[in-house]
Specification:
It is built from eight helices and twelve strands. It is α/β, with parallel strands linked by helices and 310 residues long. The strands form three sheets. It has an eight-stranded mixed sheet with strand order 4-5-7-8-9-10-11-12. Strand 1 and strand 2 form a beta hairpin. The protein starts with 23 loop residues before the first strand and ends with a strand.
């Protein structure tokens, strides 16, 4: 029986059936992405919304997503297109955009948005005029909203065209993918925001239905090939202790062979506040004061720590 190689599940999928992510299917004895080109969400966002605070801050980016996910986070912000019952309809209703069409959409906004269209960015050094920190219009394309790695073939094909057009590619991901998938995408991705959702195997396996080891392995290699920022959403009673944040920040700081000769301590970390969503509507929002305390602990190890949803 054909086996999917995208993530740790290694789903064995019968002909005509889908894997755990609900978007990879067996056709003619091969595992292919059923969601290839099926776009459920398309928007023009500030780059900080990804969130990326140290990659072309002040710029915009066309953001596109499909359907499906290989985790089962009970607090999912985009459950309508990931793994809820509501996502089922997108198999037939999602608009098809070829890689050429999506890349052309990004190019249109790249050519028609100037620096005057940029969003105002706070916390940027006005003396820094390097390309990386210069505000501008649309810089390219972000693959986001659902989990893009489960349809990595579409990401690869589109991102290659985006590069050929002189623009940037961004990946917003849970990092639950094999290093083989990362190798396929590495030549075309300029920046990633990767979720490091917690630092215990219990939380990853029991709550998220994922693999902490796979995510950590993915991050360890991703930081070598492009600009990476990490995000941890703080869920009350799950991953909200000072001790766990100390472990997260310490592990990040110890990463080696970082892109462009940086140190692990220079990898930005976004610590975000939880609001009740999806199957966790009975939880209280994360205490704002706790977010700030966790950020202060992280800053003992990391140079760039940002708080979100506060």
């Amino acid at each position: 029986m054909p086996k999917c190689n995208v993530c740790f599940r290694q789903c064995e999928i019968k002909e005509g059936q889908r894997g755990f992510c609900k978007s990879r299917i067996c056709r003619n004895g091969r595992i292919v992405p059923e969601n290839y080109g099926r776009i459920t969400s398309l928007a023009l966002d500030p780059i900080e919304k990804k969130p990326l605070n140290r990659f072309y801050p002040g710029s915009l980016i066309v953001s596109a997503g499909s359907y499906g996910c290989n985790l089962r986070c009970p607090f999912c912000q985009n459950y309508e297109i990931t793994w809820s019952d509501a996502a089922e309809r997108f198999r037939t209703e999602a608009e098809y955009l070829s890689p050429e069409d999506l890349a052309a959409t990004a190019l249109y906004y790249h050519e028609n948005l100037t620096e005057g269209s940029a969003f105002q960015t706070t916390g940027m050094d006005p003396a820094d005029t390097s390309d990386e920190f210069r505000p501008g219009g649309n810089i390219g394309l972000a693959f986001t909203y659902n989990e893009p790695l489960i349809g990595y073939e579409y990401v690869r094909d589109t991102a290659k065209l985006v590069h050929e057009m002189g623009m940037k590619n961004v990946l917003v991901t849970n990092g639950t993918a094999s290093l083989q998938v990362l190798e396929e995408l590495a030549p075309y991705i300029d920046a990633m925001n990767i979720d490091l959702k917690g630092f215990t195997d219990r939380y990853y396996s029991e709550v998220l239905k994922g693999s902490r080891k796979m995510v950590m392995d993915f991050i360890r290699e991703a930081v070598k090939i492009c600009h990476v920022e990490l995000t941890t959403l703080i869920i009350p009673g799950e991953n909200d202790t000072i001790e766990e944040m100390e472990q997260i920040a310490g592990w990040i700081a110890d990463l080696t062979d970082v892109y462009e000769g940086r140190q692990g301590s220079e990898i930005p970390l976004h610590i975000s506040r939880f609001f009740p969503r999806f199957h966790m509507q009975d939880r209280s929002p994360t205490d704002v004061g706790l977010i700030y305390r966790l950020a202060e602990k992280a800053r003992e190890s990391l140079a760039y720590v940002y708080t979100g949803n506060c």
